[in-house]
Write a structure and sequence with these properties.
About 25% of the residues lie in helices and about 20% in strands. It is α+β, with helices and mostly antiparallel strands and about 525 residues long. The strands form six sheets. It has an eight-stranded antiparallel beta sheet. A six-stranded antiparallel beta sheet has the order 5-6-7-8-12-13, covered by helices on one side. A hairpin with a 4-residue loop joins strand 2 (about 55-60) and strand 3. Helix 9 (about 280-290) crosses helix 10 and helix 9 packs antiparallel against helix 15 (about 440-450). The longest helix is centred in the middle third of the chain and has 15 residues, at about 280-290. The protein starts with about 20 loop residues before the first strand and ends in a 24-residue tail after the last strand. The relative contact order is 0.15.
């Protein structure tokens, strides 16, 4: 299991998590630079996108080495480890699992020796929807996935399987057959590659260093390493970077459907997506929310910290003062200490505490980014009332989340989504608020300054832009469920022994057992 994640988790109730982030990828080609350290800092900037595992692959031109482990970036890597990862190009990954469980075998980057006397390492942000089909292809080719049950490992094996093709040529053949959301960063001994699915669901941006190039999930990761933004990697584009420079190829016709939830929650507020600053978009959503759902009140407060920009916008538009009503303990993240029943009943009080003198006797508007199960909002409303609020009005800077995501966000199941089958007034009663207002889908899209036709809003409207497979062969544990071996996650190995994979492409061995878990079924899929 991953270790406690400090202040990085937005979750206020560690036992009832909300939407989990996608993943963060980073790649750098920069001869003469300390590429492992650049990658470390890039992943540090992307830590919010995944806190289960972290890894870095590096090449010095003669071989590729991967170091990865469960935990946060700062827990997996230290100064001696980074100093040992020498080379001129590197890729990195911060993982939250969307296909394949949270085991060391599924940590990334994945690595595989090719039949072309090279090695490929690959990191993936997103989630594929034809994973079962890819697994059958890998099996038919007689390839060994070495214990991993991730869709990423399947792609790595397919890219490495062509004996007569370079990795670049193999990618032009394999990428068009992959369905779903993917922003890939991968490498061999000499070349850095980046590829984005035809819909461009997950973000991927290209940056320039004085002596090299960088690709990353978010522009904030470019800022932290001193790279300037060049442009986004285009949907359906494959980029290759080596000593000959940068070259671009198209493996699919672009049909942009960027993830709308990136603007709501996933991306850092200082990120820029398709030319729109995320913080500015969130503030504008708050203004729109105030226009759509006005209410007389004395104070606007955010649910820390994801509701802060929208709360600022709501206060600006409404003229109601903005204030701090809830204080978050910045050092309480996920806890893996089993609480007693008494402590469990405290719920979010482990993370939040009200400012009673600020709240007492006031009509409060509390702004949050989304409602998933409703547990957190219910607890916040109760806490505010106990602190003396005479009215509590909840405003949400996204539409009701009614549908699961199959493109890289791990929402609750439809049965757990409070808005799936419950109307607005029913949700209001369930969380105990005096009033409840969600921003409209039209209002949210307008704040992004993107055409609705270029956005994926499936979690809000159920319209999936990439066709889902028949027979419900989809879900986080689909590979375990169809009989693949999930690997030996319980083995007692040291971090150092688990961490490093060498240029041979060999990863950990696999325990010879078969999972019999059922394939996850999703209503409305």
């Amino acid at each position: 299991m991953p270790r406690g994640d400090g202040q990085l988790s937005h979750e206020l109730d560690p036992y009832r998590p909300g939407p989990q982030d996608a993943c963060g990828v980073f790649g750098v080609w920069a001869p003469g630079e300390e590429v492992a350290k650049l990658t470390y800092f890039g992943l540090y900037a992307l830590q919010h996108r995944g806190q289960e595992a972290a890894g870095i692959a590096v090449s010095d031109g003669t071989g590729v080495v991967v170091y990865k482990d469960l935990g946060l970036v700062a827990q997996v890597f230290d100064e001696p480890t980074l100093a040992s990862l020498r080379g001129h190009l590197a890729i990195g990954h911060a993982r939250y699992s969307t296909t394949g469980g949270s085991t060391w075998e599924n940590a990334q980057p994945t690595i595989k020796a090719t039949n072309f006397n090279t090695t490929i390492a690959l990191a993936h942000n997103g989630n594929l929807v034809n994973t079962a089909e890819l697994a059958r292809r890998v099996e038919a080719l007689g390839l060994k996935v070495d214990g991993s049950t991730s869709d990423t490992a399947l792609v790595t094996n397919l890219l490495a399987a062509s004996p007569d093709l370079t990795i670049e040529a193999a990618a032009m053949q394999v990428l068009p057959t992959i369905k779903g959301a993917f922003s890939f960063v991968f490498m061999d001994e000499n070349t850095l590659y980046a590829a984005r699915d035809a819909q461009g669901v997950r973000p991927l941006v290209l940056g320039r260093l004085e002596r090299g190039w960088v690709v990353a999930s978010e522009s904030a990761a470019l800022d932290i390493v001193g790279a300037s933004i060049v442009r986004e990697v285009e949907p359906g584009e494959l980029i290759a970077i080596d000593e000959s420079g940068l070259r671009s190829s198209r493996f699919a016709n672009p049909d942009p459907k960027g993830c709308l939830f990136e603007y709501v929650y996933l991306a850092r507020p200082d990120a820029t997506i398709t030319g729109r600053n995320v913080y500015a978009a969130r503030v504008e959503v708050g203004r729109q929310l105030a226009r759509e759902h006005p209410v007389d009140a004395d104070l606007v407060i955010p649910s820390p910290e994801s509701g802060t920009p929208a709360a600022i916008g709501f206060a600006q538009e409404s003229g109601i003062p903005y204030g701090m009503g809830l204080v978050k303990n910045a050092y309480v993240g996920r806890t893996f200490i089993q609480p007693s029943q008494t402590i469990r009943q405290l719920g979010i009080r482990l993370k939040l505490n009200p400012l009673r003198d600020v709240i007492r006797g006031k009509r409060i508007i509390v702004v949050d980014d989304s409602i998933v199960r409703g547990n957190t909002q219910r607890a916040i409303v109760r806490m505010l009332r106990e602190a003396g609020a005479i009215e509590v009005h909840v405003r949400i800077s996204s539409p009701p989340v009614k549908w699961p995501c199959f493109y890289g966000i791990d929402f609750a199941s439809p049965a757990e989504l409070i808005a799936n089958g419950t109307d607005n007034d029913g949700i209001r009663r369930a969380i105990g608020a005096d009033s409840l207002g969600y921003v409209s889908l039209t209002g949210l899209i307008a704040a992004t300054e993107q055409p609705a036709s270029r956005l994926c809003a499936a979690c809000f409207d159920g319209k999936y832009p990439i066709a889902l497979p028949e027979g419900n062969l989809i879900g986080k544990h689909v590979l375990e469920s169809v009989g693949r071996r999930p690997g030996a996650s319980e083995r007692h190995q040291t971090s150092e022994a688990k961490g490093r994979s060498a240029a041979s492409g060999d990863e950990a061995s696999t325990d010879p057992h078969i999972s019999t878990d059922e394939v996850q079924q999703f209503a409305g899929a």
